[in-house]
Specification:
298 residues; alpha/beta; Rossmann fold; 2 domains; 7-stranded parallel β-sheet; 47% helix; EC 3.2.2.n1; cytokinin biosynthesis
């Protein structure tokens, strides 16, 4: 007799006084339970465990999940698999989303595993090609690629296109990590290694994991989101040796002053580490700072 059965018998001895009538009643209940389970399709060979019957009846296993009594579903895995009129609603349930998220991580890690050293360039998709910031981003992409370092962007137009363009024309690795959005046009034509993501957090993980430095050009909510997540990781020491460069003093100075002034003075942050977060108008200086961590790792 197994320990499980012994424990179960001990529990029964505490709760029930043995009698002939009780045994007969239990037997009748068991017969009724088996008939009900048979009518519901719970036959041996489905997902139901038939190892002993506890006070709640059989135990149903679905992976690591255990169900008993009224919690046991009326359907069964084999029947669901073979049903011809299946609904596709399950594709939008959270357990299935977890698999999609996992597959995105696997695809991203697989595509970028051998990328080598890289610098990410963030910025607005709305910057026109005649804008000085576009020209500066293109120059920075070229300077980074000429050092044998990959350039990673969000793969869109504007600043992202400019940095990818500079890297591609310099013969370097020009990476675009796109995001599926209703009105986006997909990856720009200067990306020579592109991945499209459904989930923002998976995409941002790729930026952080594979970048050794970041240059942040003027941008909107998407750029600010990426910037503040990076600053959080830097300030909490979740990432090491990742310099962050804010490019464009006229654009970023007000925010920079607010962070170092109002926010830091009120004790909300400990202050920005100037050795890890820089502000500049010089494209060459921005690149030099962004790649400095790569030099230290060599």
């Amino acid at each position: 007799m197994t320990d499980r059965m012994e424990n179960h018998m001990e529990d029964d001895e505490d709760d029930v006084t043995p009698s002939i009538s009780a045994s007969q009643s239990d037997a009748e209940d068991c017969v009724q339970c088996r008939e009900q389970r048979h009518a519901q399709g719970h036959t041996q060979g489905d997902d139901v465990s038939t190892v002993g019957e506890g006070p709640l009846g059989d135990t149903y296993h679905r992976g690591p999940v255990i169900m008993r009594g009224p919690m046991i579903p009326k359907d069964n895995t084999t029947g669901n698999l073979l049903a011809s009129d299946q609904s596709t609603d399950w594709l939008h349930m959270d357990p299935w989303r977890v698999l999609r998220i996992q597959s995105e991580f696997v695809d991203g890690f697989g595509a970028l595993a051998e990328l080598g050293p890289a610098v990410s360039v963030f910025g607005s998709a709305r910057i026109r090609r005649t804008d000085p910031y576009y020209k500066a981003a293109r120059r920075m992409g070229r300077l980074i690629a000429q050092q044998g370092i990959a350039v990673i962007t969000g793969g869109g137009p504007g600043i992202m296109e400019a940095a990818n363009r500079g890297a591609a024309l310099a013969g370097g690795k020009s990476v675009g990590l796109g995001i599926e959005l209703p009105h986006e046009q997909g990856l720009n034509q200067w990306v020579n290694l592109g991945i499209s993501f459904r989930y923002f957090f998976v995409r941002k993980t790729m930026f952080v994991k594979y970048s050794s430095g970041v240059i942040i050009c003027p941008g909107g909510f998407g750029t600010l989101d990426e910037m503040f997540e990076l600053l959080t990781l830097v300030q909490t020491h979740k990432v090491t040796s990742m310099p962050v460069v804010l490019f464009g003093k006229a654009y970023w100075q007000g925010l920079f002053d607010w962070l170092e002034g109002t926010v830091a003075q009120r004790g909300m942050i400990s202050g920005l580490d100037s050795s890890r977060v820089a502000l500049t108008d010089d494209a060459d200086e921005a690149v030099s700072i962004a790649v400095s961590a790569i030099d230290r790792r060599k």
